[in-house]
Amino acid sequence: MNGRRAWLVWGVSVLAYLAAVTQRTTFGVAGLEATARFDATASILSVFTVVQLLVYAGLQIPVGVLVDRFGPRLLIAGGAGLMMAGQLQLATADSVAGGILGRSLVGAGDALTFISVLRLLPAWFTGRQIPILTQWTGIVGQLGQIASAIPFAFVLHRFGWSPAFVSAASLSVLALVLTLLLVRNRPPGTAGPQVLPLRQTATSLAQAWRQPGTRLGMWTHFTIQFPGTVFVMMWGFPYLVSAEGVDSSWASALMTLFVVVAVICGPWLGSWVGRHPLRRSTMVLLIAGAMACAWLAVLLYPGPAPLWLLALLVAVLAIGGPGSMIGFDFARTYNPGNRLGTATGIVNIGGFIASLVSMYLIGVVLDVLNAAGFSGGDLYALDSFRIALAVQFVVMGFGVAGILSTRAKVRARMADDGVRLPPLRQALARERLRKQAARRGTEQSSPGNETG
Ligand SMILES: N[C@@H](Cc1c[nH]cn1)C(=O)NCC(=O)O
Description:
Blueprint: H1 4-29, H2 31-38, H3 42-58, H4 60-70, H5 72-92, H6 96-124, H7 129-142, H8 144-159, H9 161-182, H10 201-210, H11 212-243, H12 248-275, H13 280-300, H14 307-324, H15 326-334, H16 340-371, H17 382-389, H18 391-416, H19 424-451
Helix pairs in contact: 1-5, 1-6, 1-7, 1-8, 1-9, 3-6, 3-16, 4-5, 4-6, 4-16, 5-6, 5-9, 6-7, 6-16, 7-12, 8-9, 10-16, 11-12, 11-13, 11-14, 11-15, 11-16, 11-18, 12-14, 13-14, 13-18, 15-16, 16-17
Bound molecules: the ligand N[C@@H](Cc1c[nH]cn1)C(=O)NCC(=O)O.
Residues 114, 138-139, 141-142, 225, 262, 266, 321-322, 324-325, 348, 351 line the site of the ligand N[C@@H](Cc1c[nH]cn1)C(=O)NCC(=O)O.
Transmembrane segments: 40-59, 71-88, 100-121, 133-155, 161-183, 216-237, 249-270, 282-301, 307-328, 340-365, 385-404
Membrane topology: Multi-pass membrane protein
InterPro entries: MFS, MFS_dom, MFS_trans_sf, MFSD1
Protein backbone atom coordinates (compact mmCIF):
# COMPACT_ATOMS: atom_id res chain seq x y z
CA MET A 1 0.00 0.00 0.00
CA ASN A 2 2.88 2.34 0.74
CA GLY A 3 4.68 4.15 -2.01
CA ARG A 4 6.03 7.64 -2.48
CA ARG A 5 2.61 9.13 -1.79
CA ALA A 6 2.36 7.37 1.57
CA TRP A 7 5.78 8.71 2.63
CA LEU A 8 4.78 12.20 1.51
CA VAL A 9 1.57 12.06 3.56
CA TRP A 10 3.51 10.78 6.58
CA GLY A 11 6.28 13.37 6.11
CA VAL A 12 3.87 16.31 5.97
CA SER A 13 1.77 15.08 8.87
CA VAL A 14 4.89 14.54 11.01
CA LEU A 15 6.01 18.06 10.13
CA ALA A 16 2.65 19.26 11.46
CA TYR A 17 3.29 17.31 14.69
CA LEU A 18 6.83 18.71 14.93
CA ALA A 19 5.33 22.20 14.56
CA ALA A 20 2.83 21.35 17.34
CA VAL A 21 5.64 20.27 19.69
CA THR A 22 7.47 23.51 18.84
CA GLN A 23 4.41 25.62 19.75
CA ARG A 24 3.90 23.51 22.90
CA THR A 25 7.42 24.22 24.15
CA THR A 26 8.03 27.86 23.11
CA PHE A 27 6.57 29.29 26.30
CA GLY A 28 8.99 27.30 28.47
CA VAL A 29 11.90 28.83 26.55
CA ALA A 30 10.43 32.33 27.02
CA GLY A 31 9.90 31.97 30.81
CA LEU A 32 12.11 34.88 31.91
CA GLU A 33 10.74 37.25 29.25
CA ALA A 34 7.19 36.18 30.19
CA THR A 35 7.80 37.04 33.85
CA ALA A 36 8.74 40.59 32.82
CA ARG A 37 6.07 41.00 30.12
CA PHE A 38 3.15 39.83 32.26
CA ASP A 39 4.63 41.09 35.53
CA ALA A 40 3.75 37.65 36.94
CA THR A 41 4.94 35.52 39.85
CA ALA A 42 6.33 32.01 39.34
CA SER A 43 3.05 30.40 40.37
CA ILE A 44 1.03 32.52 37.91
CA LEU A 45 3.47 31.57 35.19
CA SER A 46 3.02 27.88 36.03
CA VAL A 47 -0.73 28.40 35.48
CA PHE A 48 0.05 29.08 31.79
CA THR A 49 1.58 25.59 31.44
CA VAL A 50 -1.01 23.83 33.60
CA VAL A 51 -3.94 25.37 31.67
CA GLN A 52 -2.32 24.45 28.36
CA LEU A 53 -1.84 20.81 29.50
CA LEU A 54 -5.36 20.63 30.96
CA VAL A 55 -6.87 21.83 27.68
CA TYR A 56 -4.71 19.30 25.82
CA ALA A 57 -5.71 16.37 28.07
CA GLY A 58 -9.38 17.43 28.30
CA LEU A 59 -9.76 17.49 24.52
CA GLN A 60 -8.28 14.05 23.81
CA ILE A 61 -11.56 12.12 23.81
CA PRO A 62 -13.62 14.71 21.86
CA VAL A 63 -10.77 14.94 19.34
CA GLY A 64 -10.59 11.14 19.07
CA VAL A 65 -14.31 11.06 18.28
CA LEU A 66 -13.93 13.91 15.74
CA VAL A 67 -11.02 12.24 13.97
CA ASP A 68 -13.10 9.09 13.47
CA ARG A 69 -15.90 11.22 12.02
CA PHE A 70 -14.12 13.84 9.90
CA GLY A 71 -10.77 12.17 9.20
CA PRO A 72 -7.25 13.22 10.21
CA ARG A 73 -6.59 15.77 7.40
CA LEU A 74 -9.20 18.26 8.57
CA LEU A 75 -8.15 17.93 12.21
CA ILE A 76 -4.42 18.32 11.54
CA ALA A 77 -5.18 21.44 9.48
CA GLY A 78 -7.59 22.75 12.16
CA GLY A 79 -4.95 22.10 14.84
CA ALA A 80 -2.36 24.09 12.90
CA GLY A 81 -4.88 26.92 12.47
CA LEU A 82 -5.66 27.02 16.21
CA MET A 83 -1.99 27.00 17.18
CA MET A 84 -1.28 29.79 14.72
CA ALA A 85 -4.10 31.84 16.28
CA GLY A 86 -2.83 31.03 19.81
CA GLN A 87 0.74 32.11 19.07
CA LEU A 88 -0.45 35.32 17.36
CA GLN A 89 -2.62 36.05 20.38
CA LEU A 90 0.40 35.51 22.64
CA ALA A 91 2.55 37.71 20.40
CA THR A 92 0.27 40.67 21.12
CA ALA A 93 -0.98 39.83 24.64
CA ASP A 94 0.26 41.92 27.54
CA SER A 95 -2.13 40.77 30.28
CA VAL A 96 -2.15 37.44 32.12
CA ALA A 97 -5.68 36.69 30.86
CA GLY A 98 -4.65 37.40 27.25
CA GLY A 99 -1.59 35.18 27.66
CA ILE A 100 -3.61 32.33 29.11
CA LEU A 101 -6.10 32.61 26.22
CA GLY A 102 -3.17 32.26 23.80
CA ARG A 103 -1.80 29.20 25.60
CA SER A 104 -5.28 27.62 25.71
CA LEU A 105 -5.59 27.96 21.93
CA VAL A 106 -2.14 26.41 21.53
CA GLY A 107 -3.15 23.52 23.86
CA ALA A 108 -6.34 22.97 21.85
CA GLY A 109 -4.54 22.93 18.49
CA ASP A 110 -1.85 20.66 19.90
CA ALA A 111 -4.54 18.25 21.14
CA LEU A 112 -5.88 17.89 17.60
CA THR A 113 -2.57 16.95 16.05
CA PHE A 114 -0.86 13.87 17.49
CA ILE A 115 -3.74 11.41 17.49
CA SER A 116 -4.75 12.53 13.99
CA VAL A 117 -1.24 11.85 12.70
CA LEU A 118 -1.26 8.37 14.29
CA ARG A 119 -4.69 7.77 12.74
CA LEU A 120 -3.17 8.14 9.25
CA LEU A 121 -0.68 5.28 9.70
CA PRO A 122 -2.98 2.25 9.35
CA ALA A 123 -4.58 3.86 6.27
CA TRP A 124 -1.26 4.30 4.43
CA PHE A 125 1.01 1.55 5.83
CA THR A 126 0.74 -2.10 6.75
CA GLY A 127 1.93 -4.72 9.24
CA ARG A 128 5.16 -4.32 11.17
CA GLN A 129 5.89 -0.94 9.61
CA ILE A 130 3.15 0.64 11.72
CA PRO A 131 4.75 0.26 15.20
CA ILE A 132 8.09 1.40 13.78
CA LEU A 133 6.52 4.45 12.12
CA THR A 134 4.55 5.17 15.28
CA GLN A 135 7.90 5.42 17.07
CA TRP A 136 9.43 7.58 14.33
CA THR A 137 6.42 9.89 14.50
CA GLY A 138 7.08 10.40 18.22
CA ILE A 139 10.81 10.86 17.68
CA VAL A 140 10.63 13.34 14.80
CA GLY A 141 7.94 15.28 16.68
CA GLN A 142 10.17 15.67 19.75
CA LEU A 143 12.69 17.49 17.53
CA GLY A 144 10.20 20.37 17.69
CA GLN A 145 11.72 21.07 21.13
CA ILE A 146 14.99 21.84 19.37
CA ALA A 147 13.20 24.32 17.10
CA SER A 148 12.03 26.12 20.27
CA ALA A 149 15.36 25.89 22.04
CA ILE A 150 17.51 27.18 19.15
CA PRO A 151 15.87 29.25 16.35
CA PHE A 152 12.92 30.45 18.44
CA ALA A 153 15.19 31.38 21.36
CA PHE A 154 17.52 33.18 18.94
CA VAL A 155 14.70 35.32 17.47
CA LEU A 156 13.34 35.99 20.98
CA HIS A 157 16.66 37.25 22.32
CA ARG A 158 17.63 39.13 19.16
CA PHE A 159 14.33 40.67 18.04
CA GLY A 160 12.03 40.38 21.06
CA TRP A 161 8.76 38.80 22.17
CA SER A 162 6.34 39.62 19.34
CA PRO A 163 8.62 38.74 16.38
CA ALA A 164 9.50 35.44 18.11
CA PHE A 165 5.88 34.36 18.58
CA VAL A 166 4.87 35.60 15.11
CA SER A 167 7.70 33.53 13.58
CA ALA A 168 6.59 30.49 15.62
CA ALA A 169 3.05 31.03 14.27
CA SER A 170 4.42 31.03 10.71
CA LEU A 171 5.60 27.42 11.20
CA SER A 172 1.97 26.43 11.80
CA VAL A 173 0.89 28.38 8.70
CA LEU A 174 3.33 26.22 6.71
CA ALA A 175 1.94 23.05 8.35
CA LEU A 176 -1.63 24.19 7.60
CA VAL A 177 -0.98 24.88 3.92
CA LEU A 178 1.05 21.70 3.31
CA THR A 179 -1.55 19.57 5.09
CA LEU A 180 -4.40 20.92 2.98
CA LEU A 181 -2.38 20.50 -0.21
CA LEU A 182 -0.75 17.12 0.34
CA VAL A 183 -2.37 15.06 3.10
CA ARG A 184 -5.24 12.72 2.24
CA ASN A 185 -7.04 10.48 4.71
CA ARG A 186 -6.41 7.35 2.67
CA PRO A 187 -4.94 6.23 -0.67
CA PRO A 188 -7.15 7.07 -3.67
CA GLY A 189 -9.58 4.32 -4.57
CA THR A 190 -9.56 2.68 -1.12
CA ALA A 191 -12.59 2.72 1.13
CA GLY A 192 -12.16 4.08 4.64
CA PRO A 193 -13.71 2.47 7.71
CA GLN A 194 -17.47 2.94 7.83
CA VAL A 195 -18.32 6.21 9.63
CA LEU A 196 -20.85 5.65 12.40
CA PRO A 197 -24.02 7.76 12.57
CA LEU A 198 -23.78 10.65 15.04
CA ARG A 199 -26.12 9.05 17.57
CA GLN A 200 -23.75 6.06 17.77
CA THR A 201 -20.83 8.22 18.87
CA ALA A 202 -21.52 7.71 22.56
CA THR A 203 -21.90 3.96 21.97
CA SER A 204 -18.61 3.88 20.11
CA LEU A 205 -16.89 5.76 22.96
CA ALA A 206 -18.35 3.30 25.47
CA GLN A 207 -17.23 0.37 23.30
CA ALA A 208 -13.70 1.75 23.00
CA TRP A 209 -13.57 2.16 26.78
CA ARG A 210 -15.05 -1.26 27.50
CA GLN A 211 -12.40 -2.89 25.30
CA PRO A 212 -9.74 -3.88 27.87
CA GLY A 213 -7.04 -3.49 25.20
CA THR A 214 -7.80 0.28 25.08
CA ARG A 215 -7.52 0.57 28.85
CA LEU A 216 -4.32 -1.49 28.81
CA GLY A 217 -2.98 1.13 26.37
CA MET A 218 -4.14 3.97 28.63
CA TRP A 219 -2.49 2.46 31.74
CA THR A 220 0.66 1.82 29.71
CA HIS A 221 0.79 5.48 28.68
CA PHE A 222 -0.09 6.54 32.24
CA THR A 223 2.64 4.45 33.88
CA ILE A 224 5.71 5.06 31.77
CA GLN A 225 5.24 8.44 30.10
CA PHE A 226 4.87 10.57 33.26
CA PRO A 227 8.25 10.14 35.04
CA GLY A 228 10.13 11.56 32.02
CA THR A 229 7.55 14.31 31.40
CA VAL A 230 7.63 15.43 35.05
CA PHE A 231 11.43 15.47 34.97
CA VAL A 232 11.83 17.36 31.69
CA MET A 233 8.86 19.71 31.91
CA MET A 234 9.01 20.70 35.56
CA TRP A 235 11.11 19.25 38.36
CA GLY A 236 14.26 17.85 36.71
CA PHE A 237 16.17 21.11 36.42
CA PRO A 238 15.53 22.45 39.95
CA TYR A 239 16.22 18.99 41.39
CA LEU A 240 19.53 18.56 39.56
CA VAL A 241 20.83 22.08 40.11
CA SER A 242 19.46 23.07 43.53
CA ALA A 243 19.20 19.73 45.33
CA GLU A 244 21.92 17.58 43.75
CA GLY A 245 24.29 20.51 43.21
CA VAL A 246 24.86 19.72 39.52
CA ASP A 247 26.34 22.58 37.51
CA SER A 248 23.63 24.06 35.23
CA SER A 249 25.63 23.27 32.06
CA TRP A 250 25.81 19.60 33.15
CA ALA A 251 22.09 19.69 33.90
CA SER A 252 21.51 20.89 30.31
CA ALA A 253 23.77 18.09 29.06
CA LEU A 254 21.65 15.57 30.99
CA MET A 255 18.51 16.98 29.36
CA THR A 256 20.18 16.54 25.96
CA LEU A 257 21.05 12.96 26.92
CA PHE A 258 17.32 12.47 27.54
CA VAL A 259 16.49 13.38 23.92
CA VAL A 260 19.36 11.29 22.50
CA VAL A 261 18.35 8.14 24.42
CA ALA A 262 14.70 8.55 23.37
CA VAL A 263 15.75 8.87 19.72
CA ILE A 264 17.95 5.76 19.91
CA CYS A 265 15.43 3.59 21.78
CA GLY A 266 12.34 4.45 19.72
CA PRO A 267 13.06 2.51 16.50
CA TRP A 268 14.41 -0.47 18.46
CA LEU A 269 11.27 -0.61 20.60
CA GLY A 270 9.08 -0.23 17.51
CA SER A 271 10.68 -3.18 15.74
CA TRP A 272 10.63 -5.26 18.97
CA VAL A 273 6.90 -4.61 19.36
CA GLY A 274 6.37 -5.63 15.71
CA ARG A 275 8.15 -8.94 16.36
CA HIS A 276 6.60 -9.66 19.80
CA PRO A 277 3.05 -8.33 19.76
CA LEU A 278 2.07 -10.74 22.53
CA ARG A 279 4.82 -9.49 24.87
CA ARG A 280 4.17 -5.76 24.72
CA SER A 281 2.91 -5.47 28.30
CA THR A 282 5.91 -7.43 29.61
CA MET A 283 8.19 -4.83 27.98
CA VAL A 284 6.10 -2.04 29.53
CA LEU A 285 6.41 -3.61 33.00
CA LEU A 286 10.17 -4.05 32.53
CA ILE A 287 10.52 -0.35 31.64
CA ALA A 288 8.39 0.65 34.66
CA GLY A 289 10.53 -1.61 36.90
CA ALA A 290 13.75 -0.09 35.52
CA MET A 291 12.43 3.44 36.19
CA ALA A 292 11.43 2.56 39.75
CA CYS A 293 14.87 0.96 40.42
CA ALA A 294 16.72 3.95 38.95
CA TRP A 295 14.77 6.44 41.08
CA LEU A 296 15.19 4.23 44.17
CA ALA A 297 18.97 4.08 43.66
CA VAL A 298 19.20 7.89 43.26
CA LEU A 299 16.85 8.78 46.12
CA LEU A 300 18.46 6.34 48.57
CA TYR A 301 22.02 7.34 47.67
CA PRO A 302 23.66 8.82 50.78
CA GLY A 303 24.37 12.48 50.00
CA PRO A 304 24.28 13.97 46.49
CA ALA A 305 24.21 11.26 43.80
CA PRO A 306 27.26 10.98 41.51
CA LEU A 307 26.88 12.27 37.94
CA TRP A 308 27.06 8.78 36.41
CA LEU A 309 24.08 7.65 38.52
CA LEU A 310 22.08 10.74 37.54
CA ALA A 311 22.96 10.09 33.88
CA LEU A 312 21.73 6.51 34.28
CA LEU A 313 18.49 7.80 35.81
CA VAL A 314 17.97 10.24 32.93
CA ALA A 315 18.67 7.51 30.35
CA VAL A 316 16.13 5.16 31.95
CA LEU A 317 13.50 7.92 32.25
CA ALA A 318 14.01 8.76 28.58
CA ILE A 319 12.90 5.24 27.55
CA GLY A 320 9.45 6.15 28.90
CA GLY A 321 8.64 8.47 25.95
CA PRO A 322 9.07 5.86 23.22
CA GLY A 323 7.93 3.11 25.64
CA SER A 324 4.60 4.85 26.16
CA MET A 325 3.97 4.66 22.40
CA ILE A 326 3.29 0.93 22.99
CA GLY A 327 0.01 2.18 24.49
CA PHE A 328 -1.08 3.43 21.06
CA ASP A 329 -0.19 0.08 19.57
CA PHE A 330 -2.62 -1.58 22.00
CA ALA A 331 -5.34 0.86 20.92
CA ARG A 332 -4.68 0.12 17.24
CA THR A 333 -4.65 -3.65 17.51
CA TYR A 334 -7.67 -4.06 19.80
CA ASN A 335 -10.07 -1.64 18.06
CA PRO A 336 -11.71 -1.56 14.65
CA GLY A 337 -10.78 1.28 12.28
CA ASN A 338 -13.95 3.31 12.84
CA ARG A 339 -13.20 3.92 16.52
CA LEU A 340 -9.40 4.01 16.38
CA GLY A 341 -9.21 7.79 16.90
CA THR A 342 -11.47 7.53 19.96
CA ALA A 343 -9.37 4.71 21.43
CA THR A 344 -6.13 6.61 20.72
CA GLY A 345 -7.55 9.67 22.49
CA ILE A 346 -8.36 7.58 25.57
CA VAL A 347 -4.79 6.20 25.63
CA ASN A 348 -3.22 9.66 25.25
CA ILE A 349 -5.03 11.01 28.30
CA GLY A 350 -3.21 8.54 30.58
CA GLY A 351 0.31 9.98 30.54
CA PHE A 352 -0.81 13.60 30.70
CA ILE A 353 -3.12 13.04 33.69
CA ALA A 354 -0.37 11.14 35.53
CA SER A 355 2.10 13.94 34.71
CA LEU A 356 -0.20 16.74 35.92
CA VAL A 357 -1.06 14.89 39.14
CA SER A 358 2.60 14.09 39.87
CA MET A 359 3.87 17.60 39.05
CA TYR A 360 1.26 19.07 41.37
CA LEU A 361 1.78 16.58 44.24
CA ILE A 362 5.57 16.98 44.17
CA GLY A 363 5.09 20.76 44.47
CA VAL A 364 2.61 20.34 47.33
CA VAL A 365 4.93 18.01 49.28
CA LEU A 366 7.86 20.43 48.80
CA ASP A 367 5.70 23.32 50.07
CA VAL A 368 4.41 21.33 53.07
CA LEU A 369 7.93 20.23 54.07
CA ASN A 370 9.15 23.81 53.76
CA ALA A 371 6.26 25.21 55.79
CA ALA A 372 6.86 22.55 58.47
CA GLY A 373 10.51 23.65 58.80
CA PHE A 374 11.84 20.30 57.50
CA SER A 375 13.68 21.97 54.60
CA GLY A 376 15.65 24.40 56.80
CA GLY A 377 14.42 27.36 54.77
CA ASP A 378 15.59 25.85 51.47
CA LEU A 379 12.48 24.90 49.47
CA TYR A 380 14.58 22.71 47.17
CA ALA A 381 16.66 20.92 49.85
CA LEU A 382 17.92 17.45 48.83
CA ASP A 383 16.12 15.63 51.67
CA SER A 384 12.84 17.40 50.85
CA PHE A 385 13.16 16.42 47.20
CA ARG A 386 13.85 12.79 48.24
CA ILE A 387 10.44 12.68 49.96
CA ALA A 388 8.58 14.73 47.33
CA LEU A 389 9.86 12.76 44.34
CA ALA A 390 8.91 9.49 46.07
CA VAL A 391 5.29 10.48 45.31
CA GLN A 392 6.01 9.08 41.86
CA PHE A 393 6.19 5.52 43.28
CA VAL A 394 2.57 5.85 44.38
CA VAL A 395 1.45 7.11 40.95
CA MET A 396 3.47 4.39 39.26
CA GLY A 397 2.04 1.72 41.59
CA PHE A 398 -1.42 2.87 40.59
CA GLY A 399 -0.48 2.53 36.92
CA VAL A 400 1.09 -0.92 37.34
CA ALA A 401 -2.06 -2.13 39.11
CA GLY A 402 -4.07 -0.80 36.13
CA ILE A 403 -1.80 -2.60 33.66
CA LEU A 404 -1.97 -5.91 35.53
CA SER A 405 -5.74 -5.91 35.92
CA THR A 406 -6.50 -4.85 32.32
CA ARG A 407 -3.89 -7.27 30.97
CA ALA A 408 -5.61 -10.13 32.80
CA LYS A 409 -8.89 -9.09 31.10
CA VAL A 410 -7.23 -8.88 27.67
CA ARG A 411 -5.70 -12.34 28.14
CA ALA A 412 -9.02 -13.80 29.30
CA ARG A 413 -10.67 -12.49 26.09
CA MET A 414 -7.83 -13.90 24.01
CA ALA A 415 -8.24 -17.29 25.68
CA ASP A 416 -11.98 -17.17 24.88
CA ASP A 417 -11.00 -16.59 21.23
CA GLY A 418 -8.64 -19.58 21.36
CA VAL A 419 -5.38 -17.55 21.38
CA ARG A 420 -2.91 -19.20 23.76
CA LEU A 421 0.02 -17.20 25.07
CA PRO A 422 3.12 -19.45 25.11
CA PRO A 423 5.19 -19.26 28.33
CA LEU A 424 7.87 -16.54 28.19
CA ARG A 425 10.72 -19.11 28.39
CA GLN A 426 9.34 -20.95 25.36
CA ALA A 427 8.94 -17.68 23.41
CA LEU A 428 12.52 -16.63 24.21
CA ALA A 429 13.87 -20.06 23.13
CA ARG A 430 11.96 -19.75 19.86
CA GLU A 431 13.41 -16.26 19.29
CA ARG A 432 16.94 -17.67 19.90
CA LEU A 433 16.34 -20.44 17.34
CA ARG A 434 14.97 -17.90 14.85
CA LYS A 435 18.06 -15.73 15.24
CA GLN A 436 20.39 -18.73 14.85
CA ALA A 437 18.53 -19.79 11.70
CA ALA A 438 18.73 -16.24 10.35
CA ARG A 439 22.49 -16.15 11.06
CA ARG A 440 22.99 -19.55 9.36
CA GLY A 441 20.98 -18.24 6.41
CA THR A 442 23.28 -15.21 6.14
CA GLU A 443 26.39 -17.38 6.39
CA GLN A 444 25.10 -19.67 3.66
CA SER A 445 24.07 -16.83 1.42
CA SER A 446 27.35 -14.87 1.75
CA PRO A 447 29.47 -17.13 -0.54
CA GLY A 448 26.64 -17.01 -3.04
CA ASN A 449 26.74 -13.24 -2.87
CA GLU A 450 30.45 -13.27 -3.41
CA THR A 451 30.24 -15.47 -6.47
CA GLY A 452 27.06 -13.88 -7.72
N1 LIG B 1 5.04 9.38 24.21
C1 LIG B 1 4.92 10.69 23.67
C2 LIG B 1 5.68 10.99 22.44
C3 LIG B 1 7.13 10.54 22.47
C4 LIG B 1 7.69 9.64 21.63
N2 LIG B 1 8.99 9.55 21.93
C5 LIG B 1 9.22 10.35 22.92
N3 LIG B 1 8.09 10.96 23.25
C6 LIG B 1 3.44 11.02 23.48
O1 LIG B 1 2.59 10.30 23.90
N4 LIG B 1 3.14 12.14 22.89
C7 LIG B 1 1.83 12.70 22.67
C8 LIG B 1 2.00 14.07 22.10
O2 LIG B 1 0.99 14.75 21.82
O3 LIG B 1 3.14 14.50 21.92
